[in-house]
Amino acid sequence: MRAIQVNSYGGPEALELVDVDASAPGPGQVLVDAAACGVNYIDTYQRSGIYQVPLPLVLGLEGAGTVAAVGEGVSELAVGDRVAWAAAQGSYAERVLVDAARAIPVPDGLPDDVAAAVPLQGMTAHYLATSTYPVQAGDTVIVHAAAGGVGLLLTQMVKMRGGRVIATVSTEEKAALARRAGADEVVRYDEEDFAAEARRLTGGRGVAAVYDGVGRTTFDAGLSTLRPRGTMVLYGASSGPVPPVEPQRLNSGGSLFLTRPSLVHYTATRHELLQRAGEVFGWIASGKLDVRIGGRYGLAEAGKAHEDLQGRRTTGKLLLVP
Q1: Whether the Cβ atoms of residue 42 and residue 52 lie closer than 8 Å to each other
Q2: What does the pLDDT look like over 212-225, one tens digit per residue?
């Protein structure tokens, strides 16, 4: 089968299209014919060496497709079942080995590309808005990179919970998408001081939470927008890692909370995994949640997908289509 492999850390040019043998599923695994594979920022961290992983490595964690074979001890899934997943290393490939305990059944009527687009980003938005800082009716929050894959979904989920969204974006096209997702206020952080705008828009009170997947360029200013006992949720670092934080900064800012969550800890059991995925899929099926697929690329175009993602030229979700 064809797959995208990294043999040495580097830029998008480090992604190589190779032929590899498709392994048979081991105990507790299923082999899936991939219909689509999700492209995520964590893939760029593994490719570049920000996250040190053993090489060579077939990249990718997320996707959806149809079960082609089942391993010993798998009873919940059968050949022909459609599944999605958020944590199967090697997902940039035509066939993917997935732990059956992490495979998510895809409801009838949900297209494969939509099913592949939401496991990682959809469940991330879900835990951010419902668990890490559970938005309450009337809360004002900042959603950075609001036209991105997580941002668009998170904005919609905050609005579903009765919150007010101050969205930050970098272009007018992205501003329009954020408004369409329900953002109450949109700030062009390439043109305006988003922190000053957030304070103005809250009458100086500050926001309940900042959802920050950008990192280095937004983090410090984001802390200054929080109300007393507000929560900084740092869930990514697309602009680079955040420097060390002096704990006294949280005290002087008003007894602030700082957390660095990860999806793996918010889907630690199969029950929680299926509960989060089930709610996200259910909202999509009922029309409450809109999923934007911003780009589709062939496997051989994986490098271009990474260039576009890191160049901030994308909106919504990017997919590789084997």
Answers
A1: no
A2: 999 999 999 999 99
Q: What is the pTM of this model?
A: 0.93
Tell me how crowded residue 149 is: count the other CB atoms within 10 A of its CB. 30
Cβ distance 201 to 140 under 8 Å?
yes
**Cβ atoms of 45 and 6 closer than 8 Å:** no
**Dist. CA 150–CA 135, nearest whole Å:** 16
pLDDT digits (tens, 9 = 90+) for 149-175: 999 999 999 999 999 999 999 999 999
Contact 87, 61 (CB under 8 A): yes
Q: Which residues of 276-300 are buried (b: 16+ CB within 10 A; e: fewer)?
A: bbebbbebbeeeebebbbbbebebe
Report which of 45, 98, 102, 106 is spatially closest to residue 68, judged by C-alpha positions.
98
What range defines the domain where residue 105 resides?
A: 2-118+291-320
Q: Beta strands of 194-307 (E only): which ranges?
A: 207-212, 226-234, 257-259, 293-297
Could you give the CA distance from residue 87 to residue 64 in angstroms, rounded to a whole number? Answer: 11
Residue 41, phi then psi, degrees to nearest 5: -60, -35
Identify the helix (H) or strand (E) that includes residue 4. Answer: strand 2-6
- Cβ atoms of 16 and 7 within 8 Å: the answer is yes
Q: At what angle do helices 119-127 and 149-160 cross, to 10 degrees?
A: 40
Judgement on whether residues 137 and 222 belong to the same structural domain of the protein: yes
- Asked whether residue 106 falls in the same domain as residue 132, the answer is no
> What is the CB neighbour count within 10 angstroms for residue 94?
17
Round to whole Å and give the CA distance between 69 and 97.
Answer: 10
Per-residue tokens: 195: 């922190």
Tokens of 29: 């695994």
Cα–Cα distance between 78 and 208 in angstroms, integer?
45
7 and 113 within one domain: yes
Torsion angles phi and psi, residue 286, rounded to 5: -85, -5
